[in-house]
């Protein structure tokens, strides 16, 4: 794939606003975004809201908000406008009606007056007789007079596409050659009697009208692609290049969905649990895309370098939350303070707002090594932003021995008298008190850490001292030295 800017590249992400953004959807959106950005093309978001009963504004907002959180900015869409809109299918109903009427006028589609009840009966009969439950063609051969008569009688009509008995072949950018044998698909509905289009029809009208050059979407739509290829020929538009991306699976290799409920499937759940957007994107991308080497984390910039549709695998991949956790921790452990502050805005303790920016960044960077998720920020930052510390059970145990309390009292005096307050100076002071009291290793460092932070794990002690500041260090050591045992 060349990286030459090619403004003819137009891709789209087309969510149905009937729920939240699924991790599979996020990956599809990411692949589309990468492809658009690599080629200097346009990334379009189209809202497929023709399922009026299930579509909600709230869902549309949630999906757009999650996409923005992931940093997958789009160039055209319902919230951004663009030259080939509107970008919400519910605002394009006239267009579907007009195209459907045109297809009828060409003899490529026909009005169908069969009712749902009639269709269901015939489908059941076909199944019972071992035939495919395709439309039986009742309205296919109606004369113009017959149609007019039924319409006059008040029978509502859908518009059905006339499928010719023909084999179809798709050259898919991921799956290679895919064959759809004749007879796989019966005459299908384009426009329901309610005037609402079916997915396949609206999709082709829109992908053609929005001049989509590449359709990168989930593999579950592959059977739809046969119908869509027929429709492209009917409307005399060259089809886009298709790339069907395999599914994301549960550990039992079933499709990962809300219903299976094993692992969180909503991007929002991972977001609220304190996962970093870049970590989620890197993890999801590598669930389908093989970089060709053994890298396990690829940044957005690296993906922009490496991504090609040809390197997307053909089989589904199992979602492993432990691996995602590992990627997330990697991002957290290597982030700058400023980056953590931006990612962690929703998690930061209120007290942090009054800390000046440089110190805030130092604090965040100081605790980053102990973060598994951003949700750990309040507890990790607590010792540094709260006035007093609360000892956890391990810290209490570390301060139990008489020697630990003597150590804290002696160190308090020493720190109070330091000519200059710095991490290094504190380190030397701890070592010199240790020598005096014949304490070293964990007998020396654990009680100090426990007194200063209320816990026995955390950033390096010199950094802790710098972050906590002299006055609070001295006060905390004094407190610890005065604790009664037990
Ligand atoms: N609205 C469809 C979905 O959410 C889009 C399918 C497509 O990309 O064509 O699955």
Structure description:
The structure is a single chain. This protein has 486 residues and is mainly alpha-helical. Among the domains are: 258-333, Glutamyl-trna Synthetase, Domain 2 (Glutamyl-tRNA Synthetase, domain 2, Orthogonal Bundle); 337-385; 393-481, Arc Repressor Mutant, subunit A. It has 20 helices and eleven strands. It has helices at 23-38, 57-70, 93-105, 116-128, 144-152, 199-209, 222-234, 267-272, 277-288, 300-306, 321-333, 337-343, 357-367, 377-385, 393-398, 402-416, 423-437, 442-453, 461-468, 470-482, and strands at 10-13, 42-45, 109-112, 158-161, 168-172, 176-180, 189-191, 214-218, 241-245, 248-249, 317-318. Strands 3-4-7 form a three-stranded antiparallel sheet. It has a two-stranded parallel sheet with strand order 1-2. Strands 5-6 form a two-stranded antiparallel sheet. β8, α7 (222-234) and β9 (241-245) form a beta-alpha-beta unit. α9 crosses α11 (321-333) and α16 (402-416) packs across α17. Residues 1-5 have low confidence and may be disordered. The structure holds glutamic acid. Glutamic acid (GLU) binds next to loops.
What order do the helices and strands come in, and which of them pair?
Elements: E1 10-13, H1 23-38, E2 42-45, H2 57-70, H3 93-105, E3 109-112, H4 116-128, H5 144-152, E4 158-161, E5 168-172, E6 176-180, E7 189-191, H6 199-209, E8 214-218, H7 222-234, E9 241-245, E10 248-249, H8 267-272, H9 277-288, H10 300-306, E11 317-318, H11 321-333, H12 337-343, H13 357-367, H14 377-385, H15 393-398, H16 402-416, H17 423-437, H18 442-453, H19 461-468, H20 470-482
Parallel strand pairs: 1-2, 8-9, 10-11
Antiparallel strand pairs: 3-4, 4-7, 5-6
Helix pairs in contact: 1-10, 6-7, 9-11, 12-13, 16-17, 16-18, 16-20, 17-19, 18-19
This protein binds glutamic acid.
